[in-house]
Amino acid sequence: MFRPSRRQLVVAVLALLVATAAAAAAVATASADRTLVVADAESGDRLLERPIENRTEVTLRYTHSVEKTTVEDIYVVDGTELRMDRMIFHSHGAGLPSDAPIERTDEGFVLPLNESYDQFTVAPRPIPGHELVVGDDRYDLVALTDGSVTISVTERGPTDRLSDLLSIDHRSEPIHAKSTAIHS
C-alpha cells in the first residue's frame, strides 16, 4: 500500500491551498461587486437580480400617459445607492418639470439632477410600459409583477459570485432585442 511521505503531504496541501486561493480570486473577479435588485414592494421577494458595476447607468423608461412620449429617469450606481443623474423627456406635460433648469439637446429635454436613493418604488403599469434598461439589456417591469416594486443595489458576497458561475437564474434574463418596442 502506498503511503505518502511527510514532504508529499505538505506539497499536496500547499497545492490545494494555492488552487483554492486561485479559485476564490477567480470568483471574486468573475462578476460585479454589486447586485441590482427588483423586489416585490409588499413581500420583499426578489423578482430580478443582476450583477452590476459601480457607475453603471440604470434607466427607468416609460411612456407619459397623457403626452404619449418617452420619459427616461437615469440613475447611476454609486456604491449601494442609486443616484438620479438626469431625466430626459420629449414634451412638457402633467407631472413633468416645467420651471426647472432644463437643457434642450438631441436626446430631448434634459433635467440634470443629483438625488441619491437607497431604493425607490415603481408601480409598473401596461399603458406607461415601465421597463428597466441596463446597458444593452432591457427588463419589462410590467411582466414581472402586478404590484409595485422596489429597485435597489446590494453588495455581493463570494457566495453570490460562486452562484453566478454555477447556475443560470431566470431572474436575470433580459428581454430579447427583437421585442424592444414599447406598446401603449
TrEMBL record:
UniProt xrefs under Pfam families: DUF1850
Domain of life, source organism: Archaea
Identification of the protein by name: DUF1850 domain-containing protein
